[in-house]
From TrEMBL, chain A:
Protein name (database record): NADH-quinone oxidoreductase subunit C
One Pfam family from the record: Complex1_30kDa
Domain called NADH:ubiquinone oxidoreductase 30kDa subunit: residue spans: 13-95
InterPro entries: NADH_quin_OxRdtase_su_C/D-like, NADH_UbQ_OxRdtase_30kDa_su
Species this chain originates from: Methanoculleus formosensis
GO molecular function annotations of the record: NADH dehydrogenase (ubiquinone) activity
Matches recorded under Gene3D superfamilies: NADH:ubiquinone oxidoreductase, 30kDa subunit (3.30.460.80)
TrEMBL record, chain B:
Binding site for Fe cation: C68, C356
Protein name: NADH-quinone oxidoreductase subunit D
Sites where the protein binds Ni(2+): C65, C68, C353
UniProt cross-references to PANTHER family, sorted A to Z: FORMATE HYDROGENLYASE SUBUNIT 5-RELATED, HYDROGENASE-4 COMPONENT G
Domain NADH-quinone oxidoreductase subunit D per the UniProt entry, residue ranges: 120-282, 287-359
Lineage: Archaea, Methanobacteriati, Methanobacteriota, Stenosarchaea group, Methanomicrobia
A Pfam cross-reference name: NiFeSe_Hases
Binding sites annotated in the UniProt record for Mg(2+): E46, I320
Keyword Protein biosynthesis applies: no
Listed GO MF terms: ferredoxin hydrogenase activity; NAD binding; nickel cation binding; oxidoreductase activity, acting on NAD(P)H; quinone binding
Keyword terms: Iron, Magnesium, Metal-binding, Nickel, Oxidoreductase
Gene3D superfamilies found in the cross-reference section: Cytochrome-c3 Hydrogenase, chain B (1.10.645.10)
Cofactor(s) the protein requires to work: Fe cation; Ni(2+)
Length: 126, 359, 161
């Protein structure tokens, strides 16, 4: 039996993020990934969820300095993606359950995917 | 209250060829907490899209990992094909399925060997790797490469497998399956193996699902989730049912992989006998404009390639989420309670692929 | 000297994955297992740098493993030979333009043998080890020669004083 895969993407505002994620968790979705995209001066953060091969994305758009709340108290495993978000993009994430404070992925160039690409050693999660 | 000590594990260690570091907090011999740190193989592949055209990036995608190489190329190509609305010929779908399942066979046999090695069963390790060589021979005969194949491309495949070779492969499958079943029999029924693995590193179905486990790690806990069910490539025609175990321990994860070896052999057999005639590829014109989350079931679980094109030859973004990254949180939950001597077995039971994880 | 001569065909190998894609690593392991099976000659993959004669490195150097590679190399006893396996270990290969790759292994430690290929084939890797053996032998001869000279000098000095 073949299941059809569907993908939907909906935008989400920063203040609604944790509420929306919580609702998806109650609906029985699992967290697939959190990924960022540089859209020229701002970040698009995709929170992807799946239930029975139905793929749902919450898309958050944030500026370079905006602090993002962690969803690791809802999905415990989110810490890997959120640490990655901080280490590669330099997006400050607030309240991760296992916060590596910038040592999860160490790179030669700090925040290699940052829209501002300015580097510096300052950990934004501190 | 016993004293707590911290034992650093890795990055260079005899468990698997790749570097991963774990800080193990121990009380006597029992692990109470495990903190992973990664980054030893981080290369920064995702930014290579700036320097490679979208058709060339297939070869970079293939080198994200040398074990699931074909499937990374497949996942990437399917993503681009979806964005550009390219219809791939049927024969290419079937060939992709055959090579995918060959990759799965060689990956699972490799893992079974390493797993046997981690519990000190050297003989079984050698036997698994010996069987794996015959899969690599097929891959080399049909693609030219043992571990990096380079046959998948956007719009189809680069090589055909001739009728004679297909018939030879089909004939070889029966004796190969018999040998695999002999091998699997030891993993599934040997008393010492059972004694070592049962009840070790248990993770329940709900926990595995909530932590976002992927592949055999999830299926070993009873989560029936296998992306091949969505019928990409030729899986839709061939029909497919996920292999599921319910115990959630190291033995269950091992059993899932053993049974997937049998399932893969069956899929290859049916793909060969139902192989359609036709062309291998379609011409690809233009550049991708749009986005897609492409997903494929790898030996280690579901991989996600997020691809976004902006109408130029260079993609705007490629984000690759690999199954091992998703399996790290379950691993962190599995380790507490295990004995120090069992740590290698538990770590291996998620089939970690670090070069995938860190890209 | 005579006891060392027995070891010259059976070096112990330390393998480290610097930042390879895994392809070369599993080929290194494939050399040790049936079909290629170099273990029958007594060539053993050890996890302990202090037991190893040959360091096999796959993949290029990145920020985090720089110190690890140097540390492993320094822990190995003399004489030692370094074999860089695959094109990534030689120059950075397909990953050379990545932001986190500094280049081949020779940026950090001296490399004696380069094994080409992406991924390097087991036959090539075995060839590389055979080449490494003769270099190991040369280094050993040089070391024993130097020790002999020192010893002679010490004895000569002992006789005069």
């Amino acid at each position: 039996m073949t299941v059809n895969e569907e993908q939907t993407t909906i935008g989400v505002a920063l203040e609604d993020l944790t509420r929306e994620v919580k609702a998806l968790q109650t609906d029985g979705y699992r967290l697939v990934q959190i990924g960022c995209t540089d859209t020229g001066g701002a970040y698009e953060v995709n929170y992807s969820f799946d239930r029975g091969y139905q793929y749902r994305n919450l898309r958050l758009t944030v500026g370079p300095e905006t602090e993002v709340p962690s969803i690791s108290d809802i999905y415990w495993g989110a810490f890997v993606y959120e640490n990655e978000m901080h280490d590669l993009f330099g997006i400050p994430v607030n309240g991760i359950n296992i916060d590596f404070k910038g040592t999860f992925i160490k790179t030669a160039e700090k925040y290699p995917f940052s829209v501002t690409r300015r580097g510096g050693d300052q950990c934004r999660n501190a | 209250m016993p004293e707590r000590i911290i034992v650093p594990f890795g990055p260079q260690h005899p468990v698997l060829p790749e570097p991963i570091h774990l800080d193990l907090v121990l009380e006597d011999e029992t692990v109470v907490e495990a903190v992973p740190s990664i980054g030893y193989i981080h290369r920064g592949l995702e930014r290579l899209i700036e320097k490679r055209e979208y058709t060339e990036y297939v070869y970079v995608a293939e080198r994200i990992c040398g074990i699931c190489s074909f499937m990374h190329a497949l996942c990437y190509s399917q993503g681009i094909e979806e964005i550009m609305k390219i219809e791939v010929p049927d024969r290419a779908h079937y060939l992709r399925t055959i090579w995918s399942e060959c990759s799965r066979l060689h990956s699972h046999l490799l893992w079974l060997g390493l797993f046997a090695d981690s519990m000190g069963f050297e003989n079984l390790f050698m036997r698994s790797w010996q069987l794996r060589e015959s899969v690599l021979d097929v891959l080399e005969d049909t693609t030219g490469g043992r571990v990096i194949q380079g046959t998948c491309k956007v719009g189809g495949v680069r090589r055909d497998i001739g009728a004679e070779k297909l018939a030879e492969m089909h004939r070889a499958l029966d004796p190969f399956e018999a040998q695999c079943r002999d091998l699997g029999d030891v993993f599934l029924n040997d008393e010492t193996v059972k004694y070592r693995l049962q009840g070790l590193g248990v993770i329940s179905k709900d926990e595995a699902y909530a932590l976002g486990a992927a592949g055999p790690t999830a299926r070993g806990s009873g989560v029936a989730m296998d992306h091949r069910e969505t019928g990409y490539a030729a899986y839709g025609d061939l029909g497919f049912k996920p292999v599921v175990e319910t115990a959630g321990d190291c033995y269950a994860r091992c059993a899932v992989r053993v049974k997937e070896v049998y399932a893969s052999i069956d899929l290859i057999r049916r793909a060969i006998s139902e192989m359609p005639e036709g062309s291998l590829d379609v011409k690809v014109k233009g550049a991708p404009d749009g986005e897609y989350f492409s997903r494929v079931e790898q030996p280690r679980g579901e991989v996600v390639h997020y691809l976004r094109g902006n109408g130029t030859k260079h993609l705007a973004r490629a984000r690759i989420r690999t199954p091992t990254l998703a399996n790290i949180p379950p691993l962190v939950k599995m380790l507490p309670g295990a004995q120090l001597a069992d740590v290698p077995v538990v770590v291996l039971s998620i089939d970690p692929c670090i070069s995938c994880t860190e890209r | 000297m005579s006891t060392m001569a027995f070891l010259k065909r059976s070096p112990w190998i330390l393998h480290y994955d610097a930042s390879s894609c895994n392809g070369c690593d599993i080929e290194v392991l494939a050399c040790l297992t049936p079909l290629y099976d170099v273990e029958r000659f007594g060539i053993i993959n050890t996890g302990n740098p202090k037991h190893a004669d040959i360091l096999m490195i796959t993949g290029g150097i990145n920020e985090l493993n720089r110190a690890v590679v140097r540390n492993l190399y320094e822990q190995m006893p003399e004489p030692k030979v370094v074999v860089a396996i695959g094109i990534c270990a030689a120059t950075g290969g397909i990953f050379r333009e990545c932001y986190n790759i500094a280049g081949g292994v020779d940026k950090i430690i001296p490399v004696d043998v380069y094994v080409p290929g992406c991924a390097a084939r087991p036959e090539m890797i075995i060839d590389g080890v055979v080449t490494a053996l003769s270099i190991l032998e040369e280094k050993r001869a040089k070391m024993t020669g130097a020790a002999q000279i020192k010893d002679d000098a010490r004895q000569a000095a002992g006789e005069t004083t």
